[in-house]
Amino acid sequence: MSVEKDIQHDVIAVLGKSPQILTETLYALCVLRKTPITEVNIITTTDGVDIAQDCLSGTGPGSLKQLIKDYPKYCSNIHFSPQNIFIAEDGLMPVADIRTRTHSDLFFETILKVLWRKTESPHVALHCSLAGGRKTMSAYMALALQLLGREQDALYHVLVDPIELESHKEFYFPPAQSTFLTLRNGQRFDASTAKIDLVDVPFIRLRERMQIDRYKHKTGYRQLVEWVQRDINKAVVLPDLVLEPEKKALIIGEEEIKLQPQRFCLYWYFADRSKHRLSSVSTSDYAAYFEPSASPFFSQQMRDGLIARFDFLDRSGEMSETFRERILEGGELPSTWVASAISRINAQLRVQLSQAQWLPFYLISAEGKRGNKFYGINLDREKIVTPEFIS
Questions:
Q1: With contact defined as beta carbons under 8 Å apart, do 151 and 124 qualify?
Q2: For 240-298, how does the pLDDT look when each residue is reduced to its tens digit (9 = 90+)?
Q3: Rounded to the nearest 5°, which phi and psi values hold at 370?
Q4: Residues near 59 by beta carbon (within 8 Å), at least 6 away in sequence
Q5: N- to C-terminal Cα separation, the chain
Q6: What is the C-alpha to C-alpha distance for residues 353 and 252, in angstroms, rounded to an integer?
């Protein structure tokens, strides 16, 4: 998982009747991995609410408060309130336990709702635990994260050594001071020497590739899974987009499309914006990485980016000089020229790109409403290969 500066780290865990899972996970994240956890969120049933409350708001030996007391350097910033407990509901009635298919669907719906809300901010990284609760809860947490997880989100399972401590009612995390517990075999064991191992569970991130956000306001989460599976079955396998300045050409799969030099540099500029999209920004968040429309002139950043690419192609400077004299108006980049160049580039791609189903991903697209449009290339950044240069 990539970690960026100024990012908030939150835990989301499914919890049944074993609160140890939560404190063990927090210990591993905060104390062992030095991850600055800020907020703890619990998804459970009514059977697990009291257990969650005792664990997170109580003062007993297995409470969050005790963990913070033992390890204030690493755990003092953890926040929790009763509002951070989410319970699956059947209409207005909370679900006591997962005993039917309906209750199972409702629990999955609750997980998805929580994750959708928590993944809205690119400045929040989620640390999700599937170790607690019934196996159904764990499976749904993993599935939900496959659907909605971003690059900065992670999924974990927690292991305890010796294994006898996993179900020990008095063990919640390795305490800071020596504390002896009696194991089932009668032996005394110093709990402070126990080993906690946080296992990173790999998962496939589908959110961007399948454009899952378009289903956000749909109802019926079993149907959501069916829709996503349908899209996967008919998904287009997209080739890399490679820009070759020496040829002024776009290489898309086995196809080579040569552009007029100025238009090649314009396409290059848009390709670089998509290539350098932050990992925390969804491909559908066009305002975050596409070029905003402007009238009568586009930004100085875009103008300077084009000129830098002209100079990369033509070291003599003639290309950029001609651009300044014939295209720029008072030193500004006119939107009329940009619109015309985009139109010509897209027309050429429509004619020369043999696979019509690829076009939406390689054209220079205009996204947004009239008067608030953004221009760019709607292709995953990992599929874009452009030369590196200092503008």
A1: no
A2: 999 999 999 999 999 999 999 999 999 999 999 999 988 767 666 777 788 887 778 89
A3: -60, 130
A4: 65, 66
A5: 30
A6: 8
